[in-house]
Design goal:
The chain has 309 residues and is α/β, with parallel strands linked by helices. The protein has 2 domains: 12-136 and 289-304, Rossmann fold, CATH 3.40.50.1370; 138-286, Rossmann fold, CATH 3.40.50.1370. 38% of the residues lie in helices and 15% in strands. The protein has 11 helices and 9 strands. α1 (17-34) crosses α11 (285-304), α5 packs across α6 and α5 packs across α11. The protein is globular.
Length: 309
Amino acid sequence: MKQLSVQHLLGIKYLKKEDITLIFETANHFKEVINRPIKKVPSLRDITIANLFFENSTRTKLSFELAEKRLSADVINFSASQSSVKKGETLIDTVNNILAMKVDIVVMRHSDVGAGVFLSKHVNAKIINAGDGAHEHPTQALLDTYSIKEKLGTVSNKKVVIIGDILHSRVALSNIYALQLLGAEVMVCGPLSLIPKHIKSLGVQVETNIKKALEWCDVANVLRVQNERMDASYFPSTREYTQLFGINLELLNSINKDIVIMHPGPINRGVEITSDVADSDKSIILNQVENGVAIRMAIIYLLAQQIKK
């Protein structure tokens, strides 16, 4: 059986193209499973997984939990807000206490960049990065690229624009790595205050005119403005941001081509995207949600195959 070239899923930048192909092939199988009347498989009956979320996340946490349960794994959920971390316990102590309960895989979301890499060097378990600071969110990028491939048949040579708050987004960086690995062209679009200064060094185009960006692309992946990560004002007002960078049906209809609309969620309706776009047949937002479970099942399953019981 084919195996991943990595021991953990810490970021897209550590993956090879063959790894992504293997994850997609495995996800195809699981997608068929989750559309059956009985949606569970006994693949990971002897595996215990801990979900460690040091930051709030509804969708990612639910998606991982559902993926784990569909594979019949035993699941422990840990929320930092109700934990000893509040009492000053270190990350390694927290995780080691959990691993003492014989946990095989840790899914972790943390506000610190590199938290997953740090953990992978200090604990004896498989680590899946569910988002570290404004750095990477590998499973989101994998489900996004998988959704593009499903919709358009291929990712290679497609033009994808990522629109919005690139500066504070872990989704953007992981998507850039994954899309380029699969042969897509990538552009970012948003106010210059929300675009990292060195982004062009990643081989990405920068555009500040939303209409030009949409005319260029095959796929538009729309990000929300991450107010919770901002310690300053990056644009005059939400209203002005919406006027300059919001996507509505009138704008899409003014472009003489069909483009695919994506959004990693949660959506701020009426800010970066209007409801008539988010709910239209141009949008694959709900496909992304469904594919998220299949992709996360694939990753968990492939990493679990490396565990010697």
